[in-house]
């Protein structure tokens, strides 16, 4: 597992615009641990709230899904 930046998560979500991912799915796709992924997503939501959008997961109880919201 490697470290990853907020920018790399944003780029991944932008490439997959319109798709929704849980933290676990994002971490698996990006080959990072769940904690690192979650921390970066929380920072993105706090500081760049127009890039990331969230919704409650319909598949997993007590989980959120993340998607790209910004402009292309």
Number of helices: 3
Taking all residues together, what is the mean pLDDT? 83
The first-to-last residue Cα distance is 29 Å
Largest sheet: 3 strands, antiparallel
Q: Level of helix content?
A: 40-55%
- Indicate the radius of gyration in whole angstroms: 11 Å
Please provide the ordered H/E string of secondary-structure elements: HEHHEE
CATH class categorisation = Mainly Alpha
CATH topology: Arc Repressor Mutant, subunit A
What share of residues are in beta strands? 15-25%
Structural account:
- This is HTH marR-type domain-containing protein.
- It comes from marine sediment metagenome.
- It contains 3 helices and 3 strands.
- The chain has helices at residues 6-15, 23-30, 34-47, and strands at residues 21-22, 52-56, 64-68.
- It is globular, with a radius of gyration of 11 Å.
- It has a single domain, classed as Arc Repressor Mutant, subunit A, CATH 1.10.10.
- Helices cover 44% and strands 17% of the residues.
- It has 72 residues and is α+β, with helices and mostly antiparallel strands.
- Strand 2 and strand 3 (64-68) form a beta hairpin.
- The longest helix has 14 residues, at 34-47.
- The chain has a 3-stranded antiparallel sheet.
- The mean pLDDT is 83.
Features:
72 residues, 3 helices, alpha+beta, Arc Repressor Mutant, subunit A, three-stranded antiparallel β-sheet
Give the helix/strand layout.
Layout: H1 6-15, E1 21-22, H2 23-30, H3 34-47, E2 52-56, E3 64-68
Antiparallel strand pairs: 1-3, 2-3
Helix pairs in contact: 2-3
What is this entry, summarized?
By secondary structure, the chain is an alpha+beta fold. The chain has helices spanning 6-15, 23-30, 34-47, and strands at residues 21-22, 52-56, 64-68. A hairpin with a 7-residue loop joins strand 2 and strand 3.
